[in-house]
Amino acid sequence: MKSKELIQGAEENLFHVYNRFPVVFDRGEGVHLYDVDGKEYLDFASGIGVMAFGYGDKEYGDALKAQIDKLTHTSNLYYHEPMIAAAEQVCKVSGMDKVFFTNSGAEAIEGAIKTAKKYAFLRDGFAGHEIIAMEHSFHGRTVGSLSVTGTEHYRSPFLPLMDGVRFATFNDLNSVKEQITDKTCAIVMETIQGEGGLYPAEETFLKGVRKLCDEQDILLILDEIQCGMGRSGAMFAWQKYGVKPDIMTSAKALGAGVPVGAFLLTDKVAASSLVPGDHGTTYGGNPLVCAAVNTTIHMMEERKIPEHVESLSSYLEEVLDEVASSYDFVEGRRGMGFMQGLVLSIPVGDVVKKALDAGLVVLSAGGNVLRFLPPLVIEKEDIDAMAAILRDVFNKMK
Ligand SMILES: *Cc1c(COP(=O)(O)O)cnc(C)c1O
Description:
41% helix; Aspartate Aminotransferase, domain 1; globular
């Protein structure tokens, strides 16, 4: 077994910050991954929601290869065509007015936080503003993004984090109201909570928060890093609610396999917040990743990916509901579109490990949720194949 040796070598040098599963992936094709020993896996994780088109798509690969041969990096001191096109595309599909490209989701959140703080600083003439974030949220691992992440065990070793963050309960409008002070500059939340356990925002909640923000000139920051780019059944999940943010973050599937994120804002916020000198990035939005963004958006539109997710998600839900009702240790299902979770009363890590052994890649979330983030191009037969493997795994755990 080639993988055993490779894993031993890996642990000699890699900082052990992940408890990785004992699999060494080698290549992918469609919705399948293959490890170095040639074993096939059905992928219902897509590299944590990144690989929207699965693996080895020719159009995607050709576009990136062409850009590699042409130009991969310039820095942000100059213009380049891939970024100009990517900015136009991402603003068009989101309905937002301006974009700043980053290298990751966490960096998109950092930029969103700085933008909101500067907006309030210019309006009020002083700093010291507060941000309201949600319990069980996840916004990233950098110090700023961790400051608005509502999971205690991610945070506690690193205290003190950024000052002035208050936590409210997701889907509880009163708890948000209770945290508003005259210093509140922004409310940040995922439209659908991912890592925290697959909780979609309730429509009345999201609309209520939007109204509070409008009444008190508080900026609404919606984190669409996981739920955006077609996964909910719309290009961005907030578009299903008819609630538009002032600032939005994107990453994960934005480049469908290269490290790129973005924060987007309205003209109102852009006109009175960050100015040259306030923010920057060396790599952010380089020609290679912007070529990926352009190709991704083009392919999503041309292949009607959000529509595909929207029309097939009821089948995925039906199949998962059937599985849920067959096993006592499955308490239920939660999610939206191709972002689904089964709530378990048995250790979820164990299930993920056994599914992997059985050739199915799935994820966990929120401590007790089995999370499904399949490539957005899966078809009915892939859902059936997933359910068959999952039932095999569950049958052995009864
Ligand atoms: C993954 C994720 C992030 C962080 O993105 P990174 O690219 O890992 O920094 C932030 N917010 C949400 C909702 C995420 O799912």
